[in-house]
Amino acid sequence: MNSEPLPAAAETQLAVLETDEQSARRVADLLAESFPPDEIAVSLVDTGQGADPGQSKWRVTVFFRDRPDEAGLRELTAVAAGPEAGRALRLETIAAKDWVRESLAGLKPVSAGRFIVHGAHDRDTVPPNRIGIEIEAALAFGTGHHGTTRGCLLAFDSICKQNGNGLQSTLDVGTGTGVLAIAAARALRRRVLATDIDLASVHVARDNARLNRAGTDVTFTHANGVMAPAIHGRAPFDLVFANILLGPLKRLAAPIRHVLAPGGRIVLSGILNAQANAVLAAYRPLTLERRIELDGWTTLVLRRGMRRADIAQSRRQP
Fold it and tell me: Is the four-CA dihedral 106, 80, 246, 230 of positive or negative sign?
């Protein structure tokens, strides 16, 4: 894995916000998704300080390689946590430092069903009966600390318990760090195809897969959407992950349905709670099986029905 720090600039630009836990997580999620992975690092820390007992403040610190657009940054923060948070965001400039490693400070292992997502500093704490996935934060979106990634892992864990043997083929659209693809490869012991529109994320995810002993089980491809020949050559898929944002989820609804096998499931996330109904409408006539809400974000599990011809064919197969 490429764990070398990003090249240091003369100065590092910071954006800092102290707020409640749910707002802090939403801001961290949205900012991590909104910037190229090699230009941003996000730290999310419980400060343990609050005006009322039992209500601690959380600090979001965003490290930028280059000076960000302040107005745009405040607008994104307001979208995630309200206008007051947008106004409260504090921008600073500090001396050069290893800001990727700095962003790891305070990140603890995250448990999601049978999976534990962790950094290198917690590698030895994973129990032997759990599947540990080592992901370095800030290199690409998806460290497991976000409600979107945790929701997908919880949904996948449940699907495995119901029908793990029936999942012969898996596609991860917008793989980010590769955490979902790695989880699928480790849990199912079958080949997984993972794609991302961002080439840097593809490289990071591939390194993470090697680190997690899944390098030969996951094929990572640079692709925009699901129309790439590499995807159609391996379709249909029994399981599709799409942990991306509302706009891309709606645009990809028809193409994703097209590559989904009869009886297959889609796990969708990157959806604010208020956006869930819009996503459900875009993916009709798929059936909603489960809805998971974490930290202001929604994960949806949808299933494609099986036609009579599909059922008859499945009965003929050994």
Answer: negative
**Cα atoms in the 13 Å half-sphere on the side-chain side of 268:** 33
Give the distance between the most distant pair of CA atoms in the chain. Answer: 67
CB 58 within 8 A of CB 20: yes
DSSP conformational letter for 216: T
The pTM of the full predicted model, rounded to 2 decimals, is 0.71
Write the CA distances from 211 to 6, 206, 214, 220, integer angstroms: 19, 9, 8, 14
Distance CA 58, CA 107 (A): 12
pLDDT, tens digit (0-9, with 9 covering 90-100), for 192-239: 999 998 888 898 899 999 999 999 999 999 998 898 898 999 999 999
Per-position b or e across 206-234, b if 16+ CB within 10 A of its CB? bbbbebbebeebbebeebeebeeeebeeb
Confidence at 316, pLDDT banded by 50, 70, 90: very low
